[in-house]
Amino acid sequence: MQAVDDQDSKKRRMRLIRILVVVAAVVFIIIPAVALTGLWITERQKRAGQPPRVTVPNIVGQDYRRGESILEEKGLKMRVLATRWDQNQPVGVIIDQNPAAGESVEVGHSVGVSVGGKPGQQFGQPER
Predict the structure, then answer these.
(1) Which of 28, 38, 57, 91 is 20 to 30 Å apart from 13, CA to CA?
(2) Burial class, 80, CB count within 10 angstroms (exposed 0-12 / middle 13-18 / buried 19+)
(3) What values do phi and psi take at 58, rounded to 5?
(4) CATH architecture of the domain covering 53-116
(5) pLDDT, tens digit (0-9, with 9 covering 90-100), for 65-105
(6) For the chain, which residues make up each domain, given as ranges?
């Protein structure tokens, strides 16, 4: 009789161990995997809805027209913010840019530049 009780006790223990292993697998593996998959899908959808981004190239020191073409190649626009006279800087050379080189911006974004030139000189405007 005792041998039968020992066998029943071993069977119950084994069943309990199996149940605990299954519960642990569900709690520590399956549920987190499902949650992370859902988070991954949500993040991909969010990124797919955003416009593409590009890294701003360095155009400081470039001629105005060359800087403009470099930006256009990246899908960016140029906007002259200021014309600054500096006798140490050649006319028509980009002195400063904003945003800075290396920053990430949306395609189509305008990069503001300061160009070396004589007072009142216009860049980016059609000649009259």
Answers:
(1) 28
(2) middle
(3) -85, 120
(4) 2-Layer Sandwich (3.30)
(5) 999 999 999 999 999 998 888 777 788 999 999 999 999 99
(6) 1-50, 53-116
